Amino acid sequence: MVPKTIHASITASRVMEACVRYEVTLDNPGFCLACGEEADGIEPDLSDAVCDACGCHCLFGASEILIMEAYHNDDGLEQKGSST
């Protein structure tokens, strides 16, 4: 589930960089929207998985976060798409 407040470290540039890493390397990054922790070995379309760092069901694949627009713009404003 998408938390009401997305961690401030989840920015558009961080999510885009993770998506690029997925495409050009063997990395499979994802992020916990609650605590901001990055996880590896995450399928791009993963949603609502349990975060090992905080225990919240807020772990998403980087591509899924990008599609949902569930991140902070690089100017610090929170962006939440219509699909959240």
Description:
The structure is a single chain. This protein has two helices and five strands, in the order αβββαββ. Helix 1 (12-24) packs across helix 2. It has helices at 12-24, 62-68; strands spanning 30-32, 38-39, 59-61, 71-72, 78-79. A hairpin with a 5-residue loop joins strand 1 and strand 2. It has one domain.
What's the topology here?
Elements (H helix, E strand, L loop, with lengths): L11 H13 L5 E3 L5 E2 L19 E3 H7 L2 E2 L5 E2 L5
Antiparallel strand pairs: 1-2, 1-3, 4-5
Helix pairs in contact: 1-2
Class from secondary-structure proportions: alpha+beta
Give the total of beta strands. Answer: 5
Strand content: 5-15%
| Strands side by side in the biggest sheet | 2-1-3
What is the count of DSSP helices, taking H or I runs of 4+ residues? 2
Query: SSE string, helix = H, strand = E?
Result: HEEEHEE
- Shape verdict: globular
Mean pLDDT level: 86
Spatial separation of the terminal alpha carbons: 9 Å
Q: Give the fraction of residues assigned to helices.
A: 10-25%
Rg calculated over all Cα atoms = 11 Å
* Main sheet attributes: strand count, strand direction, barrel closure: 3 strands, antiparallel
> Segments where pLDDT lies below 50 for 5+ residues?
none
Domain module tally: 1
